[in-house]
Amino acid sequence: MADKEKAAAYWSANLRLILGSLVIWALCSFGFGILLRPMLSGIPVGGADLGFWFAQQGSILIFLALIFFYAWRMNKLDKEFGLEE
Fold first, then answer.
1. DSSP structural state of residue 56
2. What angle (nearest 5°) sits at the alpha carbon of residue 19, between those of residues 7 and 73?
3. Measured on CA atoms in the order 64, 65, 71, 77, is the torsion positive or negative?
4. DSSP codes of every residue in 25-53
5. Where are the domains of the chain?
6. What are all long-range contacts of 10-14, with beta carbons under 8 Å and residues at least 24 apart?
7. CA 35, 24, 15 angle in degrees (round to 5)?
8. Number of C-beta neighbours around residue 46 at 10 A
9. pTM reported for the whole predicted model
10. Residues with Cβ < 8 Å from 21, sequence gap 6 or more?
11. 40, 74 Cβ separation under 8 angstroms
12. Residue 49, phi then psi, degrees to nearest 5
């Protein structure tokens, strides 16, 4: 594979990973915490309803999990393309 093709494939994989992470984060924080909150209000989680939990804690925990997932996946992607440190 030529260097330009390799760079394009790496960048494409990186963009897919970023886009997927942003979609998950937006769905959990904006979707579950704001838009779908009335639908989730009947499901109890730790003394509060699920919509409130997503708005207050869930979106932050999902964001932290996505940070670790992104770092792990990027390290794996770097190894696949021979760009590891």
1. I
2. 65
3. negative
4. HHIIIIIIIIITHHHHTTSEETTEEHHHH
5. 24-80
6. 10/77, 10/81, 10/83, 13/77, 14/74, 14/77
7. 135
8. 9
9. 0.80
10. 66, 69, 70
11. no
12. -85, 160
Q: What is the pLDDT of residues 27-70, one digit of tens each?
A: 988 888 888 888 888 889 888 888 888 888 888 999 999 999 99
For residue 80, the model assigns a pLDDT of: 92
Measure the CA–CA gap between 68 and 52, rounded to whole angstroms.
24
Structure token pair of residue 5: 């093709």
Pairing of strands 48-49, 44-45: antiparallel
Beta bridge partners of 49: 44
- Determine how many CB atoms are found less than 10 A away from the CB of residue 62: 19
Task: Name the token pair of 21.
Answer: 């992470």
**Per-residue pLDDT at 37:** 86
> Which residue in the block uniquely carries the two structure tokens 């594979």?
1
13: tokens are: 């994989």
- Structure tokens given for 57: 């804690």
